[in-house]
Amino acid sequence: MSEEKGLPRLTQLAQTIGFEVTEFSEGKCVVECEITEGHLNMGGVAHGGIHATLLDSAMGGTLVSTLAKEEWCATAQIDISYLNSVGAGARLIATGEVVRRGRNLAHMEGRLVTADGMLVATAKGTWAVWVDRPSSQTG
After folding, report:
1. For 25, how many CA atoms within 13 A lie in the half-sphere containing its CB?
2. I want to staple 133 with a disulfide (CB 3.0 to 4.6 A). Which of 4, 72, 83, 91 is the partner?
3. Tens of pLDDT along the chain (139 residues)?
4. Domains in the chain and their CATH numbers?
5. Residue 71: how many CB atoms within 10 A of its CB?
6. Is residue 54 within 8 Å of residue 19, measured between CB atoms?
7. Spatial separation of the C-alpha atoms in residues 107 and 21, rounded to whole Å
């Protein structure tokens, strides 16, 4: 991801899967992926793990965009409703929204749609928030 565009660096997993962060600003993170044959399950549609990872990335990214520099967060729980399937060639677009943010918890919602607007999946989740990076994440 281009640092000059103000977009965050992608993890190795996100790069391997083929994710692209297309928008990142305070309170907003959009993560997209073009579905290829390599993303399909045995039934010939995009694997649910792709949906889950896109939603987790967009929701987490949205929360990260609101954190102070020293704060840290991690997904504690996520619940996904799979509504429609897609095949190779579909472009999936994931977005997140902060529903409520407290000192140590954030409640998030996410939507996954195709480029033409079909709703593919929705998610709700809880993120743990720390005032600084936990010792388990240093080093």
Report:
1. 2
2. 72
3. 334 356 788 889 999 999 999 999 999 999 999 999 999 999 999 999 999 999 999 999 999 999 998 999 999 999 999 999 999 999 999 999 999 999 999 999 999 999 999 999 999 999 999 998 767 666 5
4. 6-137 (3.10.129.10)
5. 14
6. yes
7. 21
